[in-house]
Structure prediction request, 250 residues.
Amino acid sequence: MTLPRTSVELLVGRIHCDVSLRQGMHRSDSTAKHGQANGTANSKYRGKAMIDYIKGNLVEARDALERLINNSAQLGNIEASASLLIEALERERRVISCGNGGSMCDAMHLAEELSGRFRDDRPAMAAVAISDPSYISCVANDYGYEQVFARFVQGNGSAEDILFAISTSGNSPSVVLAAQAARAKGMRVIGLTGRPHSQLELHADICICTSAGQYADRVQELHIKVIHILIELVERALQPKNYENESPRV
Prediction:
């Protein structure tokens, strides 16, 4: 019996697919064996073992955290920032957060754990991050990127609300302009930076500065720790039942 043309094509296609799959599996197996044989060589970077870089990163992070732990001025700023957040949320005001790049992710993290959930169930708290892509692209296109956060604050912020402004350098124009717009509306501004004496600090009611070395990644690691501490302090004040049965900390 002669198969229709379409059936023959399907059959040939399946044969080719099966052959290609077997060849691919063979190549993958060979590559894996080759990688295992050269694992030691591949874990070397400029004469140092990969594990040295891993430990080095963790030691840098630990040292940065130790410096923050021993910085009484910044611990005081964290405490004062928590008090501002507690006061605003207690009065049913709103927290608006903003930042660029990784700092936008941190701004979203703060807002979702206040409005959603941190550790245990409790009522939602009013918080929003300026992170809507359609809004940001609209304002950036019509007014310039530097206005993306300020424009939102002008349209959505109210007196006694909180602007939580994050910038690792403390000098991001879009974040600084947002702080200026917030102050003009009678909002309170909490800055979170990684460099002292920044432009953001000039326009903030309180500025937490987590200096942590040459690059932004160490700063951002401390920023997320500060954010989690602030959320916990807010919950302890406004939802103390969530912490009644906690285990003692060592």
